[in-house]
From TrEMBL:
It comes from Spirulina subsalsa FACHB-351. This is YtkA-like domain-containing protein. Residues 1-24 form the signal peptide. It comes from the Bacteria. The keyword Signal applies. The keyword Signal applies. Keywords: Signal.
């Protein structure tokens, strides 16, 4: 009886031991926000250094895994202030994990950018 119990336990454990483990990667995001200055020149800010009520010309989102690899061709959804359900714009990141858009400046407030690819996702808020 002891041998049959050992065989039963081994038949349960062997598949668990040989199942490949999935590796998890964190997803990092940053925004490069171009602003037109009063003299006409362009200045670039991040989502944390952007002054309020500036004339934003475009926002480039860059997405990378914790390994440094770009989230190439990941899906992106951009939500305008006041609507966290219906995306204002959707798209696909390029091969370098980047996506550029020009927000509607008539809609001031928190813009939320959400990205996902192969089970990995993250979001970033940009306050305009």
């Amino acid at each position: 009886m002891k041998n049959s119990l050992k065989i039963s336990l081994l038949s349960l454990l062997i598949p668990l031991m040989i199942t490949p483990k999935a590796s998890a990667h964190e997803v990092g995001m940053r925004a490069a926000i171009q602003v037109r200055a009063s003299n006409g020149s362009l200045i670039t800010y991040s989502e944390t250094t952007l002054p309020r009520n500036v004339q934003v010309t475009n926002i480039t989102i860059t997405v990378r895994y914790s390994t440094g690899e770009a989230m190439a061709h990941g899906r992106i959804k951009i939500f305008a202030p006041g609507d966290s359900v219906n995306p204002w714009k959707t798209g696909v990141l390029n091969a370098q994990g980047q996506y550029t858009f020009s927000p509607n400046l008539a809609r001031r407030g928190r813009w939320t950018v959400y990205v996902e690819s192969e089970g990995h996702s993250n979001f970033l808020n940009v306050l305009l």
